Amino acid sequence: MGTSGRPDSTSREFHNPKGEIRSEEISEKNVRWLAVVFDLDDTLFPERQFVDSGMRAVADWGEQVLQIPAETTLDELRGLIEQHADGRTFNRWLANHHLDPEEWVHPMVQVYRKHEPTLTPYDDVSPVLQKLRRTCRLGVVTDGYLEVQQRKMAATGLEDRFDAIVYSDELGRDAWKPSTKPFELVLQRLGVAPDEAVYVGDNPTKDFRGARQLGMETIRIRRPDGLYGHLKTACPEDAPHWQIATLTELVSLMEDTRA
Question: Can you tell me the mean pLDDT for 134-145?
Answer without folding.
Answer: 95
